[in-house]
Amino acid sequence: MIRFIDLFAGIGGMRLGFQQACDVLGIESQCVLSSEIDKRAIETYKLNFDDQPMGDIRKIDIISEFDFMLAGFPCQPFSYAGKQQGFGDTRGTLFFEIERLLTSYQPQAFLLENVRGLTTHDQGRTFNTIINSLEKLGYGIHYLLLNSSNFGVPQNRVRIYILGLLGKKPKITINSDRGATDSHTFKEQLYQLSLFADPYLVVKVKDILEQKVSENYYLSKNFEQQLFDAVDGQFEKLHGVRLIDFRGGNSLHSWDLGIKGKCTKDERDFMAALMSHRRHKEFGNHQDGKSLTIEQIKTFFDNENMENIIYSLIEKKYLKEINGRYNPVSGNMSFEVFKFLDPESISITLTSSDANKLGIVQNGKPRRITPRECARLQGFPECYIVHQDDNAAYKQFGNAVTVPVIQAIVEDFIKNNSITKANLFSSVIPMVR
Predict the structure, then answer these.
(1) Catalytic positions (predicted)?
(2) Distance from the CA of 360 to the CA of which of 66, 199, 208, 310 falls in 20 to 30 A?
């Protein structure tokens, strides 16, 4: 029997992956404590595990003995009283609660999860603080940077996983792999692999789509019409497209959608050329996205109606002129969808703030992805109960861990460190402190 606790539990993704790993290995497991403060997440957790998470971990002092700690802890600012030694302390952060419980209970192992930016936060000092603190408690540490897209889910999600084993460094056969940097690179790598072997067995966005969805997930008629006009009625052109004014490339902009007034083809071509060329170093290194003169613009876009094009764009407030130099007016665009996924590739990283604004074109019609599709992007099984409030569900899956990644890590950890009921983990009846 492996007894474990599930801290900062969210909707139980780490617990689910841990339990699945134990089931595969034929090991019994028991969650003796779960802790979460978000009320909606607690509702979802209880629906799926028939277990009521306790609240704020800072207020929990008495726990049954446990062997394994799971924690997807928040990354907060760290203080650096010990800068001269290359590390600080963790007081005032939620990571301190992890330290407190490890110190008091000395479980045999733990698995922590966080965003990959943890490794570079404050020039790496935060990460060094964490590792140093864990090692001082007597744990050998191994950490991995892994991309969810390498574990059977079509999502580009890189996270750091920190494993600890009491008294010695854990043996792990999984290697860090950040995977493809984006959906375009993913497709290129997939193509290269297919040249030398059988079709590469991967899961793509198209594989996790629901075949029938509620009308609630389809776009408003006005927005759909704007997109229709922008892509000349060919919605398939939206595959992989982002709606943003701040960058070029595979993007649609406010002038493409006619937000402040419809633009002619020449006007849209002008703006596209300006967006793609204004960052070129030939126009200087003084800033990213430089304002350019007419003479500079003519080196990459020349049209006999240049003056009329520029005048019209300025009138519509898509273009601004300051001291004879021109630059796009880049506004914040807030639409029903900010990014359309490519069905033949992987999704961008789900986040709590915008999982509800990811789109897909299915059967020739654009729509938003559903909460169930978000669950699939995170590797949650079909039996998992999704919160009935869509807003809560989108947020929860954006915050969740990818279940198959947790399962793979735990299986590897247990196999390679001889973690069985008979040796490393105790099998006595839990005691209460």
Answers:
(1) 75
(2) 199
Looking at residue 184, its amino acid is H
- Structural domain including 134 reads 2-181+389-416
φ, ψ of residue 154 in degrees (nearest 5): -85, 65
Asked, for residue 38, whether it belongs to a domain, the answer is yes
pLDDT of 426 reads 44
Q: Does residue 192 fall inside a structural domain?
A: no
User: 235 with 226: CB under 8 angstroms?
Assistant: no
Give me the pLDDT at residue 118, please: 87
Asked if residues 273 and 279 have their Cβ atoms less than 8 Å apart, the reply is no
**Residue 302 included in any domain:** no
Beta strands, E only, 244-342:
251-252, 319-322, 325-328, 339-340
CA-to-CA separations, 412 to 15, 165, 417, 418, in angstroms, rounded: 16, 13, 8, 10
Query: Cα–chain-centroid distance for residue 418?
Result: 32
What DSSP string describes 385-424?
A: PPPSSHHHHHHHHHHS--HHHHHHHHHHHHHHTT--TTTT
Domain count, the chain: 1
Query: Known catalytic residues?
Result: 75
* pLDDT score of 92: 63
**Looking at residue 14, which CATH number applies to its domain?**
3.40.50.150
Residues of the chain with pLDDT under 50: 80-86, 420-433
